[in-house]
Structures are given as structure tokens and as C-alpha cells.
Amino acid sequence: MESFLHLLARDVVRDAHPESLTIVFPNKRAGLFLSRELARMIDRPAWMPVIVTLEEFVERYVGLKRADEITLLVKLYSSYRECSGSKESFDDFYPWGSMLLEDFDDVDKYLVDARDLFSNLRALREIEKLFPYLTEAQVEHVRRFWSHFRDGVTGGREQEAFLETWGKLYPTYCHFREKLQREGLCYEGMGTRLLRDRVDEVPRQERLFFAGFNALNKCEEQIFARFRDSGQAAFYWDHDLYYTSNERHEAGLFLRDNLKRFPNALGIEHFNNFRREEKRVEHVTVSSSSGQAKLLPSLLGELPPDPSETAIVLCDENLLSPVLHSIPPTVEKINITMGYPARKTAAAALLTLAGDLQRGAKRVGEECYYARETVIALLDHPLVQAGDPVEARKVARGVHSSNLTHVPSAMLLFDEVTRALFAPRDSSFDYFLDVIARLLAREDAGTGAIERETLFALYKWLQQARDSFRE
To answer: Largest CB tally within 10 Å, which of 1, 108, 254, 366?
Structure first.
């Protein structure tokens, strides 16, 4: 069986002018593996096509860079306070601000009229005329929700507060978008909507391959349709007839529509592999979930030597941690496509303890005193002990035998990491950044690849948050 990326690479190699091609994927990973396929096929110097994600393609023609989530939330908070006059703290705003950011993203991706959406619908009678693009079921949901806010009836404080906030969302949406545009930034939906509005500015001579997409939002559908109609684009859909030819099979729900609207550049003969190709399925009975992870070393030893050809699919995301610890050392690098929850790492646990330490600290003159229980927990932490385990245990024994409820920092400083941990700081951001930087600077580090990657990610996130707040 020839893989989807192999078929795509073959078309690229056969193209008369591959250097004029731009191949657009939904993510970076697919582009990396396409580059590998092209490298295997090409045995002479040749021009490569441009391989980008849709996000990078949007940035090229819209001229706005997609901002990270924390930067967007800080700027959204600023816009909301300016438009509403609210004195709400960022801590209170953060949970519902994240949801509001997702709502704004969906508004743009699905080309919803924001003015209509954020209207006070309790004063409106003809919802169908205002929202002609809604289904009957969606209209009924809207009616049912707003029926709780009847004309002339004063609700409780929660209802009035909700209506007051709702009335500020459209001005906040407009202010937020204008603010981002002035600063050369955008969120995903905003960038895609702007490309949809400016799609005619893309040069007609640019040839495009859109590959590996599945469910499309309204913006993407209209962008694809524009390039299809101009003859600039070819579309490559990875599917199998087993589910796309069966109208009742939910796995092919979006692809069936895509294949009709944007015909596949690859012939249908390549997509009957599920029925045609021989499959070897082996069931192994295991008594527990953790037992599945323990079997991995022996199972992986029976597979081909190239680990990039092997996928481990988990039925339960909670198995991720035991599975990662069961991967044999012969497998040097792994790609976790589902992401890894930072809160379950030793690095996150250390920073949580460090935060508790600083909140419970007491200053007496130049000396700082820390709560005994938190100090002991930190000294027992593997990332703290990794630098000098003998000294860490010695200091911990001293704390135990002292019977002090609050321990002076002078007792606790024995290496670079503890000098950062047990030091008073006025800025939480600077404190955490200093601790992480010293952990990363240690040669032994006491961390595996995942913990080190987590430390890098946390350092980057904290830097972005600090810089956003300072603006």
C-alpha cells in the first residue's frame, strides 16, 4: 500500500515546476513527513516546493502574526475593561475570558455577524429573519435561552449582570480586533476571516495544493472555493472508501461533502485499502490498564527497527504517563500528538510548591522564614534533590530535628536552585523564571526529556505572560 504522503510526493516530483508550488497542510507534522518522502524520491539537486501550514499561509497574505493564548487573553482583558468599565481582576476574568476568546474565534471562523449575535435578543421577535443561516433546532435553542429574559420583567441580580455583560460584548469584540490589528497580531479565526476577505489579493500565478484537511469551517470553505474556481488549487484528501462511500458512516461525514465540492486530485483506486489490504490483528489479554503499558517493551522489540513507522494508540489518555515510562531506551525520540498535560509533571508540581512557599513566607528584617511543611516537600522533590541529593537530605534532616514551624532561608541555601527557590521576590514572574532557568542550567538537570521539555514550555509561557502584562 502506498501512503497518502507518498502519493502526494509523487505528484510533486512529477510536476513540471515544483518550485512554483505551495503545499498547504493543517499542521506542521504532515509537512515534515512529506519532506522526508520527497528526500527519498529525489536523487539529484532539485527545487523544493514551499510547504506551509494554513496558519503560515494566512500570515503571509494577511500580514498578521497569530498571538499565543496568554497574550490574547491579556489584550482581551484590557479591551473588556475599557469597553465595560469593569474593575474585575484578571484572576476572575481568566476562566470566562478563555471561553469568550473561543467564542470570538468561532464567530470569525463561521462568518457570523457579531453585531447580531451579541444583540439583546429578548427585545427581538423574528429570530429567523435575523439569523437566516441557523437551522430550526438552533433557532429553537436561541428562543428557549432568551425566553428567560422577558420584556418588562426584572430578573435576579445574576440575570441583570449577565445582560449588562452581554451588552458589552460587541464593543469588546470590535475594540479587541482593532487593537490586535494595530499591533500586527491576530487569533486564528480573525486571520482566516481576513484572508477570506482578501483572497483575491493572492497572485493568480501561485499554484496551491491543499492536503490532509478534514472538517472545514465556513471561512476555509470559501477560501478553498475561490482557489478552486480560479483553477489555482488542487485538493488532496486522505480517506478510505470504507467510510466515505457509506452515507451512514460518521467517520466520513465531512470528507464526503469535501470530496463533492473539491474533487480529489488522487484517483479513487488509491483509497480502497481497508477492504483490500491484508491485515494482521493480534489480541493480547492483560489483567489491568497498567499491564498494557508494561507489555510495550516486548511488543516494540518485535517491530521493524524504524520507530517512525510505529504508532501507539491509547484508548485512555490516563495511560500516557505509564506508556511513556515503558518505552525502551532504544527508542530515542517520540512524537506525542495528543499533547502532554503539564500539570502531571514533576516540574509543574515543583512550581506549585514554590508558589505555596512564597505565599506562606514571613519576613523579619532581612531574613525570610518559610512554612516547615512546604520546605520539607520541596527538599524531598526529585528536581531539587537532583543537584546534590546528599546535601538535600542533610538539610531536610536538620529541618525535621529543629522543630521550627517556620524555617529561616539561611538554613536552606546549598546550591544554585535552592538559592533561587528560598529567596524573597517582589515579582512572581521573575521568581518562577529564575527557578526554571537554574534548573535548566544544571548539566545533570535530574530530568528526563519530558520534564526538560516541560520546563522549556513553562519558561516560554511565563515570559510571554510577563511581557504581556508589562505592556
So the answer is: 108
Question: DSSP 3-state assignment of 205?
Answer: coil
Tens of pLDDT along 33-66? Answer: 999 999 999 988 888 899 999 999 999 999 999 9
Q: Could you tell me the fold of the domain covering 4-63+194-276?
A: Rossmann fold (3.40.50)
Does the pTM of the predicted model rise above 0.85? Answer: no
Per domain, the residue ranges of the chain are 4-63+194-276, 68-176, 343-470
Q: How many CB atoms lie within 10 A of CB 345?
A: 22
Phi/psi at 368 (nearest 5 deg)? -120, 135
SS percent in the chain: helix, strand, coil, step 5: 60, 5, 30
**Strand 21-25 versus strand 207-211 pairing type:** parallel
d(CA 98, CA 327): 35
Strand partners, 362: 369
Cell, residue 328: 525502551
CB 172 within 8 A of CB 114: no
Q: Give residue 152's pLDDT.
A: 47
Identity at 183, one-letter amino acid code = E
- Report in angstroms the alpha-carbon separations of 38 from 2, 32, 42, 54, 100: 14, 10, 6, 20, 42
**What's the pLDDT tens digit per position in 216-242?**
999 999 999 999 999 999 999 999 999
State the Cα torsion 371-375-376-381 to the nearest 10°: 150
C-alpha cell at position 456: 522549556
Backbone φ, ψ for residue 53 (5° rounding):
-85, 165
Nearest one of 167, 188, 162, 166 to 177, comparing CA atoms: 188
